[in-house]
Amino acid sequence: MLTNGGSVPRSLEHIMYRPTPPTPARALAPADTPFAVTGTTLQVSIVAESWDRPGTTETLACGTFEVDGITLEYGDAGSITTISGVSVPLQATIRREKKSRGWEDLTFRQIALDIATTGDLSLMYELDIDPHIARADQRNQSDLAFLQEWGKKFGATVKITNNRLIIFDEAKYEQRDSAFTFKRGDDRILSASFSQDSSNVCEQAEVTYKDPNSGRVATATFRPPNPPAVGVTWQTKVRPASMPIPSMS
């Protein structure tokens, strides 16, 4: 939530930190957009006074969002208007329309490019690999859900920002150097909460695949370098139409 009574879209909500000295953050919209109504496109930025250079401001560009809801609350304490938005245009079929179709003998990037082009989006493909897929079937799924499902198979994250379909390796991004570090007791932190759930933790995964052409069965087990102390073995059998054919050599 922004301190002046506005709000950033739900997809942008995260831990907010108190500027030093305290200065309200605010959302910026184009000057020619006097009223935010459903369907309005907003260029959203978060502006706050710089912690390192007092008297100056820093801006975090959050991207383009389309307004999908407006809530007004009022009472003795004043009024609050909450504007929610989505990064995927409301008229775009990539998220809302469910489809059934298939692709054969293509790579993951080629399928993603086909879907992006159909949805009037550009493609940013940042994976180091481009797996070949013998056949992929989309069964009563939206294009975005379909790509996200396949992205998980290759350790990829799929998202849409600024009219771009982005596919990247989240683990690779997490290995980059931190932009900054906060320590407990830092007076810039308004609040923070952390949680851990061990009820659905796996220590290793076992995957079984049957080649539909040869009938041969391949089984592989993956165990991470530092598995959790408490965990189970996750077992799955892969359907031929839902995975690329692995090498049997």
Biggest sheet strand order reads 1-2-3-4
Using the 3D structure, state the CATH architecture of the largest domain.
3-Layer(bab) Sandwich
- CATH classification, class level of the largest domain: Alpha Beta
Sheet with the most strands?
Answer: 4 strands, antiparallel
What would you call the shape? globular
Description of the molecule:
- The protein has 249 residues and is mainly beta.
- It has 3 domains: 10-86, no CATH class; 93-174, 3-Layer(bab) Sandwich (Phage tail protein beta-alpha-beta fold); 202-239, no CATH class.
- It is 12% helix and 39% strand.
- The protein has helices spanning 93-96, 108-118, 143-153, 170-174, and strands at residues 26-27, 41-49, 57-75, 78-86, 98-107, 122-125, 132-142, 157-161, 164-168, 202-210, 217-222, 232-238.
- A 4-stranded antiparallel sheet has the order 1-2-3-4, with no helix packed on it. Strands 6-9-8 form a 3-stranded mixed sheet.
- Strand 10 (202-210) and strand 11 (217-222) form a beta hairpin.
- The longest helix has 11 residues, at 108-118.
- It starts with 25 loop residues before the first strand and ends in an 11-residue tail after the last strand.
- Residues 1-34 and 240-249 have low confidence and may be disordered.
